[in-house]
């Protein structure tokens, strides 16, 4: 039978999938990826190589130059370079073809639709990586690292993702799994030979092993997850203050570009504006908002509502004051609403325009604003910005010395991993308690198995389909 007789029905895992792998918009080069058993078959129907090549003669991992032709009309579509890679030495472990054409969205769309007419179906987001995982090329932590790497916003986040992609978390988890398996094996022997149970189960020794070799590494990983979260996902900081204090000027200064409109007219910013800023390796989403005051103007009022809504999402409030003005009722009312907000964020007072009026904080401010940390800056002259960044960093991380660990070398679990690690740790602690009161080995074995199950969820051995779907939904199409 020729491959064309065998194109599998829709929905089968044998289906060949295709997608545009490069982002939309014009670019020098665009890439289309095809993966599955019919990749080469589909490809050779639409590709005319410069040097005539029979389908069976395509060499794996070799670049071919030629033209993509629409097989129906015979008309040329684009001049391309293409590579056929025979599984299993590919990203998905399946047969893969990658076509590099000119980076025009129309060209890419046209080639993709010809490929689909040839028998492939459009890949779902993350489906290439999901296949790589299902075919055993990556464990689940490595698959997740692919998204982290694509989405990393700072060097620290990037190096954490690379470490995980290299399998560092997987190795750590595997080692703990091995130790749990060894301990379970001892339990099994004790269950099988109850008369020798006391010789086999030396609880003092086992408990020590459990603590040192299993629980301690778990505790260490859990702690690192909290520190890592802010570098992987970043935090959100909202700039709040009454009109004209210089909020948009601060956003622009932090971004080092004229992102938001700045004018002397109070009420300039109407919508919220959000951009990422790298603060000592921590991706911080800075949200500039409409100055908050009483207004009858509908658009401004909508902006103010948005500003208040953003307050609820933020981990940090940069509460901005104008050093050239006395505190007014509007400042105080706003400050009060920040403090009463249920989220109880950290607040940093930012006293702006010190290029016009410097000096210590007026007593009136301190009495009204309590003991919040304060930095004095000039958004316009860009003074005090380093101190502002340092203070933001130490408020969030609780340290002013920088990280204290190397994200490139550390193993940093994410929130999903942390959750499973904690459950695994709880199961181990149940084993420990059980040993203290001499419960029977079959009960200890149950908790050991449950700990193993949680670690299996992390690396993808026992993860449920729903969780897998959630993880791969985060990917873009073509990855
Ligand atoms: N001298 C001085 N002027 C500043 C400073 N920061 C902002 N300004 C000026 O203050 C005015 C208001 O600045 P914006 O950044 O638009 O203030 P805003 O808080 O975003 O104002 P709204 O969007 O209306 O709420 C502009 O004329 C800025 O040039 C500063 O540090 N020093
Ligand atoms: Mg503004």
Uncertain segments? 1-5
Total helices: the number is 16
Query: How would a textbook summarize the main sheet?
Result: 7 strands, mixed
Strand order of the largest sheet: 3-4-5-6-2-1-7
| Proportion of helical residues | 40-55%
Work out the strand percent.
15-25%
Mean pLDDT: 90
CATH-level-2 architecture of the largest domain: 3-Layer(aba) Sandwich
Radius of gyration: 29 Å
Structural class by secondary-structure content: alpha/beta
Q: Gap between N and C termini, in Å?
A: 32 Å
CATH fold label of the largest domain: Rossmann fold
- What general outline do the C-alpha atoms trace? flat
| Total count of strands | 13
- At the first level of CATH, the class of the largest domain is Alpha Beta
Explain what this protein looks like in three dimensions.
The protein has 479 residues and is α/β, with parallel strands linked by helices. The protein folds into three domains: 3-123, 2-Layer Sandwich (Gyrase A, domain 2), CATH 3.30.1360.120; 147-230 and 419-473, Up-down Bundle (Four Helix Bundle (Hemerythrin (Met), subunit A)), CATH 1.20.120.430; 236-397, Rossmann fold, CATH 3.40.50. It contains 16 helices and 13 strands. The chain has helices at residues 39-46, 105-117, 127-134, 140-151, 155-165, 168-192, 197-200, 203-232, 247-255, 298-313, 329-340, 363-369, 385-397, 415-436, 441-459, 465-473; strands spanning 17-20, 27-35, 47-49, 62-69, 76-85, 96-103, 121-122, 235-240, 273-279, 282-288, 316-322, 346-352, 374-376. The protein has a seven-stranded mixed β-sheet with strand order 3-4-5-6-2-1-7, with helices on one face. The protein has a six-stranded mixed β-sheet with strand order 9-10-8-11-12-13, with helices on both faces. Strand 12, helix 12 (363-369) and strand 13 (374-376) form a beta-alpha-beta unit. The two termini are 32 Å apart. Residues 1-5 have low confidence and may be disordered. The site of magnesium ion has 6 residues, from helix 9.
């Amino acid at each position: 039978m020729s491959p064309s007789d065998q194109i599998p029905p829709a929905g089968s895992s044998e289906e060949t999938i295709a997608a545009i792998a490069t982002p939309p918009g014009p670019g020098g080069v665009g890439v289309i990826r095809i993966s599955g058993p019919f990749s080469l078959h589909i490809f050779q129907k639409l590709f005319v190589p410069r040097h005539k090549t029979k389908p069976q003669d395509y060499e794996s991992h070799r670049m071919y130059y030629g033209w993509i032709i629409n097989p129906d009309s015979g008309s040329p579509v684009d001049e391309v370079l293409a590579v056929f890679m025979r599984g299993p030495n590919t990203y998905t472990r399946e047969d893969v073809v990658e076509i590099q054409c000119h980076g025009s969205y129309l060209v890419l769309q046209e080639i993709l639709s010809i490929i689909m007419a040839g028998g492939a179906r459009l890949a779902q987001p993350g489906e290439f990586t999901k296949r790589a995982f299902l075919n055993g090329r990556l464990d689940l932590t490595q698959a997740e690292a692919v998204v982290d790497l694509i989405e990393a916003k700072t060097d620290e986040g990037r190096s954490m993702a690379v470490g995980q992609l290299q399998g560092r978390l997987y190795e750590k988890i595997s080692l703990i799994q091995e130790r749990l398996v060894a301990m379970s094996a001892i339990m099994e022997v004790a269950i099988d030979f109850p008369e020798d149970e006391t010789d086999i189960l030396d609880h003092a020794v086992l408990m020590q092993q459990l603590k040192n070799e299993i629980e301690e590494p778990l505790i260490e990983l859990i702690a690192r997850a909290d520190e890592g979260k802010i570098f992987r996902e970043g935090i959100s900081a909202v700039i709040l203050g009454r009109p004209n204090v210089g909020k948009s000027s601060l956003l622009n200064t932090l971004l080092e570009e004229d992102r938001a409109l700045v004018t002397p007219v109070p009420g300039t910013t109407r919508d919220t504006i959000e951009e990422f800023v790298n603060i000592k390796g921590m991706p911080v989403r800075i949200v500039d908002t409409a100055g908050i005051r009483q207004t009858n103007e509908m658009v401004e009022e909508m902006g103010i509502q948005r500003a208040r809504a953003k307050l609820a999402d933020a981990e940090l409030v940069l509460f901005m004051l104008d050093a050239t003005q006395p505190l007014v009722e509007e400042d105080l009312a706003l400050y009060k609403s920040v403090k009463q907000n249920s989220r109880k964020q950290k607040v940093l007072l930012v006293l702006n325009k010190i290029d016009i009026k410097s000096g210590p904080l007026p007593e009136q401010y301190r009495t009204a604003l309590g003991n919040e940390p304060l930095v004095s800056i000039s958004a316009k002259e860009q003074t005090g910005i380093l101190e502002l960044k340092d203070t933001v960093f130490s408020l969030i991380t609780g340290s002013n010395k920088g990280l204290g660990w190397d994200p490139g070398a550390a193993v940093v679990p994410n929130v999903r991993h942390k959750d499973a690690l904690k459950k695994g740790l709880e199961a181990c602690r149940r084993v420990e308690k059980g040993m203290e009161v001499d419960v029977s080995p079959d009960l200890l074995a149950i908790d050991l198995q449950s700990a193993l199950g949680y670690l299996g969820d992390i690396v993808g051995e026992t993860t449920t389909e729903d969780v897998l779907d959630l993880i791969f939904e985060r990917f873009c199409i073509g990855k």
